[in-house]
Amino acid sequence: MVIASTHVKSLRRNVAWMFVGNGFYAFCQWLVLSILSKLTTIQELGYFTLSLAIATPVYMFMNFQLRSVLITDAENRWEFSEFFTIRIASTALGFLIVLMIGAFFGAGTFFTILLLLSAIKAIEAFTDIIHGKLQQQESMSMIARSLMLKGLGFVSSVLIGILLFHSLVSGLLIYLVMCIGFIYFVDYHFLKKVTGKIKLLSGSITKTILIVGFPLAIVRLIIALNGNVAKYIAEISLGTEKQAIYSTLAYLIVMGDVLIQAIGQTFIPRISKYAKELDWKSVKRLKFYFSIICIITGFSLYLASIAAGELILKILFSAEIAKYQHLFSLLMITGILVYYSSSAGQTLTALKIFKPQPWIHGIVFTVNMICLLFFVKPFELTGIVYATITAYIVRIVLSEWLLYRRLYHQPSTIN
Fold it and tell me: What is the pLDDT of residues 346-362, one digit of tens each?
């Protein structure tokens, strides 16, 4: 009983730290969008959101989900140096891919913003794998403090760039320099504090890491494309202004998903541990708690959008964006499905059900694309939301089917 009570307390403490850290970081990212919507043109806001939509899928794929592989490596089969070395190579390749994509758009403000955001994403990729090691050691407080510092740095950099230099580009450049400082003076410092002297580079790489991580990388790529393809279509079909409006509103869902991902990062190691011990009863209990948290989070945001949607959008963004209050409420319905499907996906990862995931997300992406092609022209931005709702319903059904097969067809050794 004492051990069980200690585990519960440590889980709650970890959840609290990750909730605070990731929640604050997500809030700061939203605050940057809010600042841009109030202090820059809708065109510049559109450049920023489109740049994120291009860079994010590339880095999600090139990260090979090494963090998930690292934190679920309960047997310690691989050295941290192997993960870090792979991350260096994959991040460099990802940066080149984003540059090649940006080259098609030619020179100008958009390309400069894309270049700087890509460099920032590259630095964040190294931070991510260090946080993975800290997470494996359940040092959630260090991760939270790192994220809060980065969030403050992002907001202050953008404000300085816009208010003092009248330039978003200047703000992003300042933040890039800050990120380089953060990774050495904060993240690497925390890593040494937890692990002692640690080797970062490896002369040999175990191919199994890539074999395990590749299906997850495909999954994350498809998920990222699934979340951003609507922005590409909005940009092409409806123009930069409406793409910016949709992307800004949709980021409110992303904020919630960051919290869900953060909470999930505390559940994943514990679920993985119980699964290894064949304690399926505990796995089911944690999955239930995780799912309930997701549903409550999504429903609370939906109620807020119904009660005071227009006021919220005026305060958070601008009067121009507040005109889309109906779209905001529809997106919050989508949020409930997004958060629940996120919990199901993270549970699949914790149970090491890797191989079916690319197929699930491939089907979901296909459904989303078909719906977008049929819905965007007659319904414009509302059609994008209808397509997203349909796609996430399909994702939930497929994910829950796989979880049911695993959780209810396994003999439990612990009653």
Answer: 899 888 887 888 888 88
pLDDT at 160 over 60: yes
Confidence class of residue 219 from pLDDT cuts 50, 70 and 90? confident
- The answer to whether 147 touches 28, Cβ cutoff 8 Å, is no
Residue 262 contacts residue 131 (beta carbons within 8 Å): no
Residue 328 · residue 304 · CB < 8 Å: no
User: Which phi and psi (to 5°) does residue 317 adopt?
Assistant: -125, -100
pLDDT of residue 127: 94
Q: Is the distance from CB of 79 to CB of 199 less than 8 angstroms?
A: yes
In this prediction, residues 364-386 reach a mean pLDDT of 94
- pLDDT for 8 equals 60
What is the structure's pLDDT at 44?
Answer: 92
Non-local CB neighbours of 145 within 8 Å, separated by 6+ positions: 21, 186, 190
| Tokens linked to 244 | 């910016």
Over the stretch 59-111, which tens digit does the pLDDT of each residue have? Answer: 999 988 888 888 877 667 788 888 888 899 999 999 999 999 888 766 688 99
Q: What is the pTM of this model?
A: 0.80
Assign 3-class secondary structure to the chain: CHHHHHHHHHHHHHHHHHHHHHHHHHHHHHHHHHHHHHHCCHHHHHHHHHHHHHHHHHHHHHCCCHHHHHHCCCCCCCCHHHHHHHHHHHHHHHHHHHHHHHHCCCCCHHHHHHHHHHHHHHHHHHHHHHHHHHHHCCCHHHHHHHHHHHHHHHHHHHHHHHHHHCCHHHHHHHHHHHHHHHHHHHHHHHHHHHHCCCCCCCCCCCHHHHHHHHHHHHHHHHHHHHHHHHHHHHHHHHCHHHHHHHHHHHHHHHHHHHHHHHHHHHHHHHHHHHHHCCCHHHHHHHHHHHHHHHHHHHHHHHHHHHHHHHHHHHHHCCHHHHCCHHHHHHHHHHHHHHHHHHHHHHHHHHCCCCCHHHHHHHHHHHHHHHHHHHHHHHHCHHHHHHHHHHHHHHHHHHHHHHHHHHHCCCCCCCC
Computed over every residue of the chain, the mean pLDDT equals 87
Instruction: Find the radius of gyration of the CA atoms of the chain.
Output: 21
Tracing tokens 């790192």 back to the chain, one arrives at: 146
CB 282 within 8 A of CB 7: no
